User: What shape does this take?
Amino acid sequence: SERQVPCRPPTQALPECGRLPTQGDQGYPPRDVDRSHKMAQFRVNGLEFACLFHNESSSGELDTVSSSDDSLPHSFWAGVILSVIADVIIAISLNTQKIAHNRNADRQTGRPSKAFIRLPLWWVGITLNALGEVGNMLAYGLAPAAVVASVGSVGVVVNQIIAVCCLKEQGRKRDLGGVCGVVAGVVLIIFGVPETEKELTVQVMLSAEVFLAPRAYVYLSALVVVIAVLVIFVEPRYAERHILVWLTLCSVISSMTVVACRGFSS
Assistant: This one.
């Protein structure tokens, strides 16, 4: 019977193979079986191949390697926890910068007393922000991008708590309802997003299946057009009255940066 295995030619570039040789093929059984690395080399019709296998079964046959990793659940939760911690740090950094701006504002005119880059507290906030973003980038290499991006909403919850407790901003009932909705959405995504078996490395992202595919060029072209329309026409007219303009612009840009960050972190 045929069994699908991930194979590669060790000595020359050949089309991808996907069948373990059987007794009817030349070169059966496989030679040079390396059981410590789960690899067997064999020759079929004059071509030499190397294939990976599972541990040897009780019947003496070699099973194919599964694409899933036993440590995947552990890395998944490690990525979620790291993302939560990073988003909490980012929320703290933003509120630290807000406090710096409030202290720097003139009480009579409301204008800044001096340039914000000269405020030590502002630099503390921007440093914390950078550290939080680095943590988020590392989290993309451990958990699916859809999960990490959604867990980022935790920062909204923390920001609401800090704004009410530290900045003395007024908390409204609809804000509380929004926070509950954010928490419910994050929980649903964490437990609902399937764990992908394909590792999104830089090589995969730059392959003909992803960024070098024709559909990727179409999407990138459309993305540039949408960003240009938002920045040139929509933002000057509606951004001050409708925050949805900024949210849309950030979401459109992050549709590519999140995926790129996932590939880099992997």
Summary: Residues 1-21, 27-38, 53-71 have pLDDT under 50 and may be disordered.
